[in-house]
Amino acid sequence: GAVVSQHPSWVICKSGTSVKIECRSLDFQATTMFWYRQFPKQSLMLMATSNEGSKATYEQGVEKDKFLINHASLTLSTLTVTSAHPEDSSFYICSALGAAMNEQFFGPGTRLTVL
Amino acid sequence: AQRVTQPEKLLSVFKGAPVELKCNYSYSGSPELFWYVQYSRQRLQLLLRHISRESIKGFTADLNKGETSFHLKKPFAQEEDSAMYYCALSGGYQKVTFGTGTKLQVIP
Fold first, then answer.
1. What span, in angstroms and rounded, lies between the C-alpha atoms of A38 and A56?
2. Could you read off the pLDDT of B14-32 as tens digits, one per residue?
3. CA-CA distance, B62 to B25, in Å (whole number)?
4. What are the backbone dihedrals phi and psi of residue B81, each rounded to the nearest 5 degrees, phi first?
5. Alpha helix ranges (H) inside chain B
6. Which of B47-75 are b and which e, b meaning 16 or more Cβ less than 10 Å from the residue's Cβ?
7. What is the mean pLDDT of residues A93-97?
8. How far is residue A11's CA from residue A83's CA, in Å, rounded to a whole number?
């Protein structure tokens, strides 16, 4: 199956700093990438959908200025958590969908801890 | 609005016993339903989708539009089935809504 990677797998940062998380499709071109957030023992919540070359579509309640998403190429999307606070600590998961695919493929996730 | 409900957070069964993971959904149109599985320390992966009407690893799920349910079943649980299972719904535009998940624990 198709492979999606995320980097870093975990990150610890100080409150007020910005953190960038990368999502890459390794063996296919991802026309669409999705970013999810998962709190402990809770479900995945879709944060935003990004199509290559266009602005991301954010879900209701997700601050677009807080969570900057860039999908500049068909194999890379980045999520930047700006001015991170402890409440942003969570597990962030991306998924990718290719043009001819009918299934999203998930990355392994990134654990963000904001001190 | 689309919503997926998985009423059980944890389901424990003995090896060889039947398994049924419940899932109910709310959607005004014709949804596409999925079951995803996440084994320990592994990423989320698609288990099956209702339009395929297939059996994967012995699991099946039938979409019941009257009851708005998509329960996941397996006649004989195996230890390797222990994992988190998420029911999910797609109403179009590729957007997928996940349920809260059920942890299946198969007791040897």
1. 19
2. 999 999 999 999 988 888 8
3. 13
4. -80, -10
5. none
6. bbbbeeeeeeeebebebeeeeebbbbebe
7. 93
8. 14
Cβ atoms of A90 and A112 within 8 Å: the answer is yes
Q: Locate tokens 């419940």: which residue? A: B22
- Taking the C-alpha atoms of residue A24 and residue B72, their distance in angstroms, rounded to an integer, is 31
Question: Which of these, A112, A91, A106, lies nearest to A25 by C-alpha position?
Answer: A106
Residue B86 to residue A21: CA distance in whole angstroms: 24
To the nearest whole Å, the CA of A77 is away from the closest chain B CA by 17
Amino acid at B68: T
Contact A43 B96 (CB under 8 A): no
Residue B33: both structure tokens together: 């339903």
pLDDT in tens, A37-50: 998 777 889 999 99
Sheet holding B72-74, edge to edge: B19-21, B72-74, B60-61
Residue B95 and residue A97: Cβ atoms within 8 Å? no
Interface of A with B in 19-78 (CB under 8 A): 32, 34, 41-46, 49
Q: How far apart are CA B28 and CA B20, in angstroms?
A: 25
